[in-house]
Amino acid sequence: MALRTIRLLGDDVLKKKAKEVTKMNFRTQQLIADMIETMHNAGGVGLAAPQVGILKAIVVIDLGEGPVILINPEITAEEGSQTGDEGCLSVPGKQGVVTRPEKVTVKALDAQMNEIEITGESLFARAICHEVDHLNGQMYVDLVEGELRDVTDEEDEKEAESK
Ligand code: NI
Fold it and tell me: Ligand 1 centre and the CA of 15: distance in Å?
C-alpha cells in the first residue's frame, strides 16, 4: 500500500466524470487499498478516486466503523434534508454549509464486485452524496450556502461532538 497525492481544488481531474469499473483486478484492488490509507492518513471520512487522479467510479468512506467501499455507486432514493458543515480533503482547511438529504440509499458494487445496497443517514448520507458528486466532477464548494470558511480548532471540536 502507498499514500497517493490528493489533488486539490483547481486541478482539472476533479471536474471530470469518472468511468464505470467493469472488472476487478490487482491494480484496482491496490488503488482501493491506497485510497483507504490516504483517507485515513489525511484524517478524512471519505475519498473518491478522482481525488487521487484516477477517473474510476470508486469511493471509500470511513466514519470510524471501518471502511465502506462503493464501486459504481448510484443513489436510488433520498429522503428528508439536513443542513450542516461539510469539508473536503481536496479543499484543506476549509468548510462550508451544504444542504443534503438526511437519508440516502445507494446501489453499488463492493470490492468483490458483488451488488450491494446501503442506506445511510445523517453524516453517512452526507458523505455518500459528497463522494458520488466527486465521481460526476462536482465539488461541494459549488453547493455552499454563504461563504467557505477557514476551519478553526474550536469548530473542529464542535463538529466532533455533533457527529
Ligand atoms: Ni471531497
Answer: 12
Q: Walk me through the domains of the chain, giving residue ranges and CATH numbers.
A: 12-162 (3.90.45.10)
Q: Report residues near ion ligand 1: CB below 5 Å.
A: 88
Which sign does the torsion angle of CA 69, 135, 92, 13 carry? Answer: positive
Strand partners for 100: 82
pLDDT tens, position by position, 40-97: 999 999 999 999 999 999 999 999 999 999 999 999 999 999 999 999 999 999 999 9
29-37: Cβ within 8 A, 24+ apart: 29/111, 30/1, 31/56, 31/58, 32/58, 32/60, 32/69, 32/111, 33/1, 34/1, 34/2, 34/3, 34/4, 35/4, 35/60, 36/60, 36/62, 36/67, 36/69, 37/1, 37/2, 37/3
Q: Is 131 a catalytic residue?
A: yes
